[in-house]
Design goal:
With 256 residues, the chain is mostly helical. It has ten helices and three strands, in the order αααααβααββααα. Strand 2 and strand 3 form a beta hairpin. Helix 1 runs antiparallel to helix 2 and helix 4 packs antiparallel against helix 5. The N and C termini lie far apart (52 Å).
Length: 256
């Protein structure tokens, strides 16, 4: 129903606004108001509401919104509305909680470089995080298909190697890490026209910007494809996201 979709869409906008609010008291009040709305609709055993809420919740989790707030809001849903559906949602939120624990664990590990691959490595001002999600839980959840890059920035390559190696060791190779670049978070400095900016992006966007920055007079998309050895269709959404916020611009060349 349109009304239910409108309600869950508004709830989604409210939750996303929490992260932009710096006043903690105001955030708590906004959370309380949202909890009350969720209680009202879920108490009515409204399955359509729960299904729609779940879809928005999944998108927020994948976009790296606060899983602690998500858990608090989820606890306000009437379990009896649909126990199976509620359990599915709970498992997804809990998976993000576990992901955060693993990520912090890996960041606390001291790494020793023994490979010649990184003998010339010099740390940059960059921070990388990955989500460690259970593939079985998240299949068919609108996650972008995985793809791989080659020949990209050594610093980013290093993080992929570290995370892959450590996650495999943590689980004694019983659970193998399958890196999905679209589900990563990278905080880094990016220089445009001699001015530095702090940027948060996913790994794909960071790799693209790092590659693009090599060409002061513009670049050809086919050159990106060749250098990174990736299909442009796989990274189309990331390219469009950079165009949308005008970090890069698109020029159409007339060959006639």
């Amino acid at each position: 129903p349109i009304f239910i979709t409108t309600v869950t869409e508004q709830i989604d906008k409210n939750i996303k606004s929490f992260t932009k609010e710096e006043n903690k008291n105001k955030v708590e009040e906004m959370v309380r108001q949202t909890v009350n709305i969720i209680k009202i609709f879920s108490q009515q055993n409204n399955l359509n509401f729960i299904v729609s809420y779940k879809d928005y919740m999944i998108e927020r989790l994948l976009q790296n919104y606060d899983f602690e707030i998500e858990n608090k809001l989820l606890n306000s849903i009437n379990i009896n509305s649909n126990k199976e559906l509620y359990l599915q949602m709970k498992l997804l939120v809990d998976d993000f909680y576990q992901s955060n624990i693993i990520d912090n664990m890996i960041k606390s590990v001291k790494v020793k470089f023994e490979s010649d691959k990184y003998k010339d490595f010099k740390p940059k001002d960059i921070d990388v995080s990955f989500k460690f999600l259970s593939e079985e839980l998240w299949k068919n959840k609108n996650i972008k298909p995985n793809y791989t890059f080659e020949n990209y920035d050594l610093q980013l390559n290093l993080y992929v190697d570290i995370y892959t190696k450590l996650i495999n060791n943590i689980f004694n190779n019983k659970k193998l890490a399958n890196i999905n670049y679209s589900l990563s978070t990278v905080d880094f400095k990016y220089t445009i026209n001699n001015k530095s900016y702090n940027i948060k992006s996913n790994m794909t966007q960071c790799i693209l910007l790092t590659e693009i920055n090599k060409y002061s007079n513009g670049f050809d998309s086919n050159l990106i494809k060749q250098n990174l050895n990736v299909n442009l269709s796989d990274i189309n959404s990331e390219i469009n996201s950079l165009l949308k916020i005008k970090i890069i611009t698109k020029n159409v060349i007339d060959n006639n």
